[in-house]
Write a structure and sequence with these properties.
The chain is built from 5 helices and no strands. By secondary structure, the protein is mostly helical.
Length: 96
């Protein structure tokens, strides 16, 4: 399952089930938050590997940059623009 698809499904589950939302938010308080997030996501049926989560955002951002300005990098990255993990929680917070 693609990371974006898994995160979308996980978001839908988290916004419809307060217990799942709480569990996901609790992973942020652990010693290894991304590892725990991926472990819980997989347990919930949305298999996400840490490395895939880390690289997917960077790959998407690089692809967008190449398509917009021919591959040159002439503007700064916005906060969390390439970080699917942080973006997931920012989006979840917006859905309260």
């Amino acid at each position: 399952m693609e990371v974006g698809v898994a995160l979308a499904g996980l978001m839908q589950l988290a916004t419809s089930d307060p217990d799942v939302r709480r569990q996901l938010e609790e992973t942020r308080k652990t010693k290894e938050p991304m590892e725990e997030f991926c472990r819980l996501s997989t347990k919930l049926g949305f298999a996400i590997a840490e490395m895939d989560l880390l690289t997917e955002g960077e790959a998407m951002y690089a692809q967008m940059k190449r398509s917009v300005n021919g591959g040159g990098d002439s503007d700064p990255m916005l906060d969390y623009e390439d970080d699917y993990y942080e973006q997931f929680f920012a989006d979840l917070e917006q859905r309260k």
